[in-house]
Amino acid sequence: MLDGHHIAGIALLCIAPIAASCAGTGTLSSDAREVVDVEASLEWVPGASEDVPGIYTSTSIEGPAAAVLREVHYRFAEDGTFTGAALLTQPVHQYTVLTGEWRVDGDQLYLSEDGEPARIEVAGDLLRMSGAEGVVVLRRRSVP
Amino acid sequence: MKNLLAWVGVAALLGWTGAGAAAWMMAKDGLTLVVQEGEHDERTVEADPVALLRDEVASLAADVSALATALETNLGVLDQRGEERTQELSQAVAALRDEVRRVRPDDDGATLLAEVRALRAAVAAIPTDGGTVVVEPVVVETAAAGTSVAEADAPPTAPEEVVEVTEEVATPAAPPKRSSFLAFTLPSDDFRFDERRHWTIDAKLSRVGFDGKSTIHDFTGTTQAVTGTMEFDLAHPDAGPAGSIRVEAATLRTGSEGRDEGMLENLDVANHPDIAFELSGFDASEVDAKATTVTGTARGTMSIRGVDREFSMPVTATVDASRRLSLTGEAVLHLPDWKVPVPNKLGLITMDEDVRVWIAVKAKLDPRDEGNSAQ
Hints:
Number of helices of chain B: 4
Strand order of the largest sheet of chain B: 5-8-9-10-11-12-13-16
Shape of chain B: rod-shaped
Radius of gyration of chain A: 26 Å
Number of strands of chain A: 10
Helix content of chain B: 25-40%
Shape of chain A: elongated
Structural class of chain B: alpha+beta
Oligomer: heterodimer
Largest sheet of chain B: 8 strands, antiparallel, barrel
Number of strands of chain B: 16
Order of helices and strands of chain A: HEEEEEEEEEE
Largest interface: A-B, 49 and 50 residues
Strand content of chain B: 25-35%
Order of helices and strands of chain B: HHHEEEEEEEEEHEEEEEEE
Strand content of chain A: 35-45%
Structural class of chain A: mainly beta
């Protein structure tokens, strides 16, 4: 006959493997608490001229440009013209707009004659522009 | 006889008088009377002193009247100018008071210095291709002892000097501003470490959570539904910091639906949807301006489940290249202090009454003049 001690022993034997499997830390490491930039982990490939046409809105801005730029929008037309709008944060919030012509040489996107080109990379519907002032990731919009 | 003589006398007298009158009538047109002052001869006519005095008094009265009229006009003009000058001085004093009020005693004129820098940036942004430009009237205060300090590389100037620029000035041959790789001309970054600024938490880049321990499994609850603002001078973080962080409690997730249901029930999120921390002070342990990093302990009031209690958390604040303030920290929180029930399953699975709460938030620097505006 099974008395109380036997039942308790059997119960402990049954629970022990489960408890052992669950034991250990399930907490988030302190190094992993910060929000991860998922875009950085994407497969980025050098962009080409045919990747550019479209309407884009920024999803992230990093680097010195982020200090003065809140968001940026572009429309790159297939005829080589473009228009853009940027929401600046200094000295106050204000939009600035411009138009011009774009061209791609290698993976360099030229948007002005006097400024440096942007290195372009693509990943899905994302276009990443990199330069000395930072990195801007733009998402292509479905707006015609 | 006597009567006859009397009548003859009368007749003679009348005749003599008539002859005299006739002679006077004939000679009066040929007479000229000349009076010369200062010469005492028979032709000088002595003037009546009373009449002269009367004339002089009348002349003086006329002069006094004219003088009074002129004085009245001049005094009116002077009075008007005096009022205008007084008004101008009053306005100048009021403006100066406002300026002094804006400069806190402990910021070493940082506000004015920042304004001077912003002014310089604005001047630098003026297009140079036109050769000459009209500069809007600006007033730049420099080196007023006790109220402002000049920028380190600025030339020394006299105290209380006010320079008003209104005339056309020729712009120096500055190099043209280049467009960025985005084609936009980006304004200069006006961040300074030693300046009180306002920051707004960017939920997309922020996360807060807690680590709990139970008898069989440790776990972490997190959420990105965090909002808040902060305002302080990083160089002097203990000088009146302000700020708050608010977490939407119902969004906390631990990775186990059953556990989450119990947790949210224990937090009574239906009646107390927010977990909030209101910053009241900061005890700095290290300020590294070169690394733009501050470490110390943030003090304030933590509100959980409707219970407010003092709470402290050691934190590290760092400003990165994107001018975002990264704020990280952690501290142990004793759940019963906030009347949060601690889960206990039949005495077999119990949770530790202490949890480690942590924050890993990033905040964007707000424009200088839009500290409290909507983002």
